[in-house]
Amino acid sequence: MAALLMDIQDGIATITLNRPEVYNAFNDPLSYELQDALKTAEKDAAVRVVVLTGAGKAFSSGQDLKASMESGKRDLSESLHKRYNPIIRAIRNMPKPVICRLNGVAAGAGCSLALACDMIIASEEATMIEIFVNIALVLDSGSSYFLPRTVGYHRAFELATKATKITASEALQMGLVNKVVPAAELDAAVQAEAAYYAAAPTKAIALMKKMLTKGMTDNLDNVLDYEAYCQEIAGNSADNAEGVLAFIEKRKPVFKGA
C-alpha cells in the first residue's frame, strides 16, 4: 500500500498521508514522499490550491516511534533537517494556499504539520496535542514558531509543557483552526474552501502569503516597503486587469492565476 496518495482535479491537489494502521505516523519513506508531493504540487501550473489530510481516523500522530526504535539510535537533528524541516519549508514557501483537512488527531510533528498550513478545517472529532514532552523531547517541525504566534506565549508554554490535548472546539476558540464542522460535513466544507481558492487570483494570494509571514517577524517600515513592492507586482498581473474590468462591467471576475 502506498504511504501517500495524491490526486489532482479541478485545480485542487489533494495529498493524503496513507498509513492509517499507525495513525499516519511518519517513517522515512512517508517523509520523503510528502516532500516530493509538495514539490510536484508547486511545479504543476494546473494546481491552484493544495489540500493536506490523513487516511482513516487520524490526521497524523507524528513520528513513528516503533520505526525509530527498529532503526536504532538516530541523530534527531539530522532527521529534522533532512525529513521534517523540508516539509514545513515547502508548505510555507508554496506559492499556493495549503488547506489542512483535519480529520482526526494531530500529534507531535503531525500537529506542527497542521499548524504550518494556511488554513485548517477541522472535524468535530479532531484533536491537537503537542505531545513531545511526554517522551522528554522538545517542540519541533515549526511548532515553536507557529504556536506562540497563534495563541500567545503563555498559552503556548502550557500546551507545550503539559502536552494538553485540545478538542476541535477548543482549538477554534484559541484561533488554531479556521472552522469546525461535523465529521459528515468535513469533505463538503474543505471542497468549498478549495474551490474558492482554485478560482481565486493565485498570484495575489501567493504574494499575500509571503507578506503575512513577513509581517509576523519584521518591523513596520520594512513591511510597508514590502507591501509597496508586492502591490506593484499584483497591479501588473492579468488577474488585476480582469478584476478591474469585471468591477466596471458589474460581473464576476474570471481569474486565471496569472
SS summary, helix count: 11
Give helix % range: 40-55%
**E-strand count:** 9
Rg result: 19 Å
Largest sheet: 6 strands, mixed
- Beta strand %: 15-25%
CATH architecture of the largest domain: Alpha-Beta Complex
| CATH level 1 class label of the largest domain | Alpha Beta
Overall mean pLDDT score? Answer: 95
Note the run of SSEs as H and E.
Answer: EEHEHHEEHEEHHEHEHHHH
Backbone shape? globular
Uncertain runs are: none
Which structural category do the helix and sheet elements fall into? Answer: alpha/beta
CATH topology of the largest domain: 2-enoyl-CoA Hydratase, Chain A, domain 1
In CATH, the homologous superfamily of the largest domain goes by the name: 2-enoyl-CoA Hydratase, Chain A, domain 1
* Integer tally of domains: 2
- How many angstroms separate the termini? 38 Å
Q: What spatial order of strands do you see in the largest sheet?
A: 1-2-3-4-6-9
Write up this protein.
The protein has two domains: 4-198, 2-enoyl-CoA Hydratase, Chain A, domain 1 (Alpha-Beta Complex); 202-248, Lyase 2-enoyl-coa Hydratase, Chain  A, domain 2 (Orthogonal Bundle), CATH 1.10.12. 50% of the residues lie in helices and 15% in strands. It contains eleven helices and nine strands. The chain is globular.
